[in-house]
Amino acid sequence: MNADTLQIDKSCLLLIVDIQEKLFNVMSDPERIEKRIHLMIELSKCFEIPVLLTEQYPQGLGPTIQSIRNGLPRYQPFEKTSFSIWGDAGIREKLKFHASRKIVLTGIESHICVLQSCLDLLGAGYAVWIPYDAVDSRNREDCRIGLNLMERAGAVISGCETIAFQLLKKSGTPEFKHISKIIKAMQDPKRR
Of residues 12, 18, 118, 133, which has the active-site annotation? Predict the structure, then answer.
């Protein structure tokens, strides 16, 4: 991998996979991923990065959790029954209309839907960034295994803060001030 391969930019797309009511609360660290996905959503608003949201069998697993729905500019989920997002023709079609081949992939569960989506996206020629702190599984070991497999397949494993500062590029901008407040609040529970 060269430096260009590791650099994310504003042309990317944010993909949020299956942060649903009946799955979310059984994750190993739901509060962490909720905060980090909110950070990614705020970045998407600052830089007009498109967001795609999926829901795995919402009739059984419920909708996306309320706080994520409220944070989105528009709640328009793609319903799916395949574990990979690539199994849904509507999602594949939507991705075709997005100019960039760079995707920031977040969600649950790391070793199932996120992993299978990542592998299919890589296989289709997309560059995929996985913020390790915005994905989760029911247990930490499965999450770790999913992250390792994605990295071995060619995904860039990063962190939300790293991605944020790669997009921000410099301090002193209104975007920097907005995102810095969110990052500080995530680190200090009293500020939330």
Answer: 18
pLDDT tens digit sequence for 167-185: 999 999 999 999 999 999 8
Active site residue 113: yes
**pLDDT of 191:** 45
Q: Torsions phi, psi of 100, nearest 5?
A: -80, 155
Superfamily (CATH H level) for 9-191: Isochorismatase-like (3.40.50.850)
Q: How far is CA 25 from the centre of its chain?
A: 17
Condensed to tens digits (0 to 9), the pLDDT of residues 16-26 reads 999 999 999 99
Of 79, 38, 44, the C-alpha closest to 59 is 79
Which of the 8 DSSP states describes residue 54? E
Residue 80 annotated as catalytic: yes
Q: Give the tokens for residue 140.
A: 């930490």
Q: What is the pTM of this model?
A: 0.93
Handedness of CA 148, 82, 5, 157 (dihedral sign): negative
Q: Which residues of the chain register pLDDT less than 70?
A: 1-5, 188-192
User: Which member of 46, 113, 118, 160 is catalytic?
Assistant: 113
Q: Is 184 a catalytic residue?
A: no
- Catalytic residue selected from 80, 102, 133, 136: 80
